[in-house]
Amino acid sequence: MGDLATTKAILGDLIAHPTVSSDSNLAMIDDLAGRLESAGARVETFRDASGQKANLLATLGPEGDGGFVLSGHSDVVPVADQDWTGDPFTMTEREGRLYGRGACDMKGFIAAAVAMAPHFAALDLARPVHFVFTYDEETGCFGARDLAGTLRDKGLKPRMALIGEPTSMRIIEGHKGCYEYSTHFTGLEGHGSGPERGVNAVEYAVRYVARLLELKVDLRARAPDQSRFEPPWTTINTGALVGGVAHNVIPGKARVDWEMRPVQVSDADFVKDALHRHVTGTLLPAMRAVSPDADIVTEVIGEVDGLEVMDLNAARDLLMELTGANGADVVPFGTEAGIFQGLGMDVVVCGPGSIEQAHKPDEYVSLDQLAQCLDMLHRLSARLV
């Protein structure tokens, strides 16, 4: 397939842009904007408040609602402390696989979509095709959330969306949400020989984590009877507990980084309510009995709703027809799909590469998976005329 060679070339260029979430993605967005403009698309970019990140919205076909969105995120996770065989930002090909950071998560899909742009442009499209590429998905879906506001402001109402996250080309109709937090503890420093005269922020952070562990057990009992997720309940993970400066100093500061992956929104509400009661009814009164300035503050890093399984989902049904799949799955990992669903679109997740390769050293996408993706997009184009 001729598009495969083009896709490989584009993917090599995209991998060469080191779009780690902590850094700018502007060079990659400019690259994509130029390619889509050359294909005849109407292209707009929208920078964030820092001016160092941008979303891209490009449209082929007629103006108006009812369009189809092809979406992917431009950012990748860091490569620090990972043992790569070669340069992670130089694509290499070995045994039918293309290696490089972002190869499957998710520059492979972006490359395939952009390679198809001239084909879409040559058609007499009955409805618009939107190319949507975002920033900072890996750190909280900030770009997609900003883009949702942009689409609302523009009054643009696409009908369906395909999020090309790596699913080994399986059709995904649902996934859990992803809520991330950092809880900050302010105590009172002092000498370790007199612990009763200080407020040990680390110890209170440990008590907070202990409550998270209790809630993990409670959430298992709340798993819906018909949950298709694995595991079928809402999960909690404590990612980090940071605090303290020396063995003999009562730590005055601590931080707990944690997340939950809710199966249902009510589980998230249950956890937040339980923690609020634990903090205000137990931890803070004990801390402030020693120091009135003691405090516990939870910073919301990101609250991204899951992709809710819907009985009626035109995007799912269409992709099943295009790929010949006889069913759709659910996954535990999060994507931007719930944000698009919140805008009223029918949404499905399907893309080349395996999530098992994402975020790892020597990340790769196979040429076979890219070819399957291109075939799906070719079949999609025939349904949009």
UniProtKB/TrEMBL annotation:
UniProt GO molecular function: acetylornithine deacetylase activity; metal ion binding
Domain of life the protein comes from: Bacteria
Record key words, sorted: Amino-acid biosynthesis, Arginine biosynthesis, Cobalt, Cytoplasm, Hydrolase, Metal-binding, Zinc
Pfam short name (any one): Peptidase_M20
GO biological process terms on file: L-arginine biosynthetic process
Keyword Amino-acid biosynthesis: yes
Segments forming domain Peptidase M20 dimerisation: 174-280
Cofactor(s) essential for the protein: Zn(2+)
Family of the protein in this entry: Belongs to the peptidase M20A family. ArgE subfamily.
The protein's name in its UniProt record: Acetylornithine deacetylase
Biological classification of the source: Bacteria, Pseudomonadati, Pseudomonadota, Alphaproteobacteria, Rhodobacterales
